[in-house]
Fold:
Amino acid sequence: MPLGGYQNKVSQVRRLLAEQSRRIKIVGLAGLEGATTTSCLIASILTASGHKIGMLGPLGCLDGRQVGRFGSTASPPSVIAAWLRRTIHHGCTHAIVEVSPRSLREGWLDGVALDVACLLPQPVDSGRGRGSREKIRFAANRLINHLAPEGLAIVSADDPIALEQSNLHDGPVLTVGIHADAEIKAVILDQCPSEQTMLLSAGCEAMPVRTRMIGTRHAYHCLTAAAVGLAYGIDLVTVVRGLEAIDYVPGHLERIECGQPFGVFVDRARTPPAIQACLATLREVIRGRIYCVFGAEGGRFEGQDDPSRRRFLAARRRRLGRAVEESADLAVITDANPRDEEPQDIIEDILAGLKRPAEPEVIPDRAEAIAWVLSQAKPGDAVLITGTGRPTRPRSGKRNLPDDRQVARHWLYANQHE
Structure:
């Protein structure tokens, strides 16, 4: 297609997005962690209040009638436009969009006017250097720029980066928080491996919220979702009902319950900060040992060697191994999705990042690794299985990896009464 024709097509899509975004209330969420869980909580609150919603994110694409499997946080403008058109046609009042750094960087939301922008609180820990902080700042800034003039920004008063970027918005800003002064606050009252209770307060109203999902991170997810609901005039009782209706989000610290005396959790976390965040959450409630089953995905090389790409992947795997070593009591290294690489090479990269490479268990077969670690867990311990959560389908010639949840349940049911 000639350059002029391509530019005309892009302009047409952007005009279409702008037109559609004026016909439906769009809630956009940006952050390196927590967007999917927060999206599900917002959807639950809006649904509990009688609204019909559409959603676009990694879990799928809901247009008010059907769920598609091609949902993504990096959907190109043509996909977003087609989804919005269906969502409006099916009578949805609100659309919830998870926004990736890539979509913001490449301008895929250009033309969209957000009704609400949620800047999710992001812990800036040892796993994130200056470059990552700049990425968070950039994403927050670009998301704010997509707000309609009268649009609402929701930020955590405990997150200085988000708070700083919200000052760039001339419209209303609503703050949430646990530690700092905020308009909507939460205090965690009780925590255990299977549930937690917090007190949610907004103005002169306060209500307890009992959730099956745990951790301080989840309290922030609930705060952000509650702020969206309250901003739309939904009463606090309905907001709490919506928060409590979500027992789990697939692949997000998903708890496996088969009557075992220890905790088993499955999470799709693949990066050092994400895995560290999961382990930190478990530390809040687990009194025993924490075991972590993990691996690293392989790269795609399409038959051509790329030394710089291999060095980048090796460095990332070393950081991954170090993060688990520092945060878990025992690391169990196994296969993830090897793609175009040999699984043993990936494992060697992970081991190279450990201070004590002889201490972790190395069990390449993923099902065997899960079975082994479950056999080691004692009452009061916890097992965190990270990296896939659901079946992984590698390229042809490579074997499929199992669904971690099914493997864990099968072993637990088979061995609980031995």
Residues 3-244 form a domain with the UDP-N-acetylmuramoyl-L-alanine:D-glutamate ligase fold (CATH 3.40.1190.10). Residues 307-327 form the longest helix (21 residues).
